[in-house]
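Quick one:
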Amino acid sequence: MFRLDTPERLQAALHDAYVIERELGGGGMSRTYVAREVALDRRVVLKVLPPDLAATVSHERFRREILTIASLQHPNIVGILTTDEVEGLPYFTMPFVEGESLRMRLERQGPLSIAQTVTILRDVARALSYAHERGVVHRDIKPDNVLLSAGAAVVADFGIAKALTSAREDRHEPARSGSITAAGMALGTPAYMAPEQAAGDPNADSRTDLYSFGVMAYEMLTGTTPFTGRSPAQLMAAHIAEPPPAIAAARSDVPRALADLVMACLQKEPGARPGSALEVAQALEDPAMVSGAFASAPSLPATMASVPAPPRVRPATALLAAGLLLALGTFLAPRLRVTSGDVPPSEVPPVASLDARAIAVMPLVSLSADSTDEYLAAGMTDELASALVRVGDFRVVSRSASQLAQQRGATPTEIGRDLGVSYLLEGTVQRQGDRVRVTTRLVSAADGFTVWSDVYDRAGRDLFAVQDELALAVVEAVGEELGVPVGAALADRSASTPATPSPVAVGSAAAPAPAPPVALVARSAVDPVAYDHYLRGLALSQRRDAASLNEALREFGLAVRRDSGFARAWAGIATTQAQLPSVTTLDARTASARGLAAAERAIQLDPQLAAGYAARGMLAMLNWEFDAAERDLARALSLDQDDALALQWMGELRLRRGDASGATAVLRRAEVLDPASPGIATFRALARHSTGSLDSALATARRTTESAPTLVAPRLVYGSLLLDGGQTDEAIRELQAARALSPNAPSVLGALGAAFALNGERVRAEDLLNQLRANPNAPSAATATAKVLVSLGERDSAFVYLYKAADARDPSFASEPLSLHVWDPIRGDPRFAELLRRVGPRTERDGRRPPPPNAPPAGRGRGG
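Output:
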């Protein structure tokens, strides 16, 4: 007993359960090794308590504490895999993470950039928030315990110090000199120790982690800790009594907001620090943390109360949705954070009842040393989800919904309840040289236990073949575990094409019958290098900003140049071309022509590829060919009835065509499939407005701004709806907040300029008008300029810009702007009727509408 002082002796004691590869070192708390777990053929980190420490702790209490820590399942936490004893010494294992520690990064690079610092701190704060909410305090946050892998930071050794302290207390042996406390194991590391830790306060709580977090942040920015160069005793005394030097004295380019946050974490009194790690994480999401550009932006209240508007009844129109399309394409990030809020029960999307075939495929985590390999994990996630649906006939929730749940740090039980699934499929992807390793596990949402897991290690020269093979293997294993027959479909994987599904009545009450299981694409169908470019393009396209979309277009282009028969890459080109006019100066007609050629090629190569039809439908809508758009989007949804993006586009099209009720039904279904989509949420607010439910529309838009306070589009939509409802002062407040986030966006400038004009602030409106005229070719600039001119009473000039927008197929002008009350001053002009005929389908309700109560007279401001 207690003779495991060498790797050889430990190996002999472990028998054949683990194969020790090397020792990583360790301190007084543990001896640490890299080992291979034989049963699952995976590398793990194995930590064994040293004999002198093991003799002072209750092994059973230590085991219970480790089991509590093992319940932490979060993408930014290195979890506990197993715990046991060997020769009387407790040990536990953790996943092996390829990469480097933050300590190694600091030693190699010195002070980090602002962007690097904020990215890493945000991940650590999210991990702390998740653990603190579950009663687990780290007590030893420092760069050594933060691991960097694939562009993400993960925190190791969560709660170990607490487990040791509790296990000692269970033995009725208070910490004393020469034991745990003296070794600095249970109370932290002197250079990062909170004052209350240094003073031995037994009531120290989660705010001690915030202080250590602040010390680590200080070091990341300046290259040193606040009290560097002192002995451990002097360090502890300094933490208790000395104020840390100001960050600005060591580094002048740190944004004020970031410096203030770090110094707040370093307050001596716990009560003076931020209230929680969640507050810190939310603060680190503010644009001011990365750039000083918004440092002077007006502060916004945490909660925006909706202002009741007098009820008014108006008919459903086609004209409300598309005017803010540019903003939706430009400003909506791929996901938004959703909170429960005060959503009326009637407005909560229904969640399907639990069944054994309902699975959430959680985004796989990339463990590769190269951060550019994140696209590989994203591609594998999509491939697994697609395979489960097509081969196994499972119900799989959308990737973005799973991603949102993962980011919230929800437990498996919470995810199961929220998403209506019985199982979660989790895993990691790691590429090293020409090898790709994928670990997967199936977790029961009922109790959080793993019901199946496996590891797949393949040569990675052919990524498409690897993904195809692993997806099929996982589906087969999961199907066997859940009793879902997939063998026949797997045997038929060489089938040419699936049977043509019947058309879908989109938005109808009756759900379409699922298409029969089909085989995946044959492994040899795509050139491996082309597939690699495709995955890179797919990951880039999900960011939706101009630079990323152009880079995605380049990657898709490389893919089709390498393999001209790659249908999905052609569909990627088509989809990207359709998005470019909303974020660049590329005109809609040019983008539509280029994109349509790519979409036609995708459909020709694979007539069963839903993405090809969806892209062609969106391009047709961009070119105002609404009948063609309707046919293609319906075809796409007949091939993939759960395509939330195609449903969003269909909802948008229904709004443009005057079918607000149909749009509401389609968007409701899209939101059930993808509750994290900001586009769907915002269009639902517009659809409610179009059906005459102004109060409901305002409530929905307000909740979206609260859930996504840093996104421009929700504030633009909310402000525009407030303006249309006659709440001009409130509209100005929201639109100014949108402008603080994007100072030069034409859609925002146009809406805010109109609001100023209607409020009698002509000088401010003219200032914005001049800014718009200075950049006339920007997306949506023509429509935005006309909106300000109408509000200023300059009708003739307004028509010049409206016709210019119509000729250019301005993406924000297709239909929506002409329904807002801001256009009422020109609604009776014959030129307005001519404009309606030029821009596309309308309803019979396009005549003059009465202004809302308390609205200013047409063409005048409240003070004019």
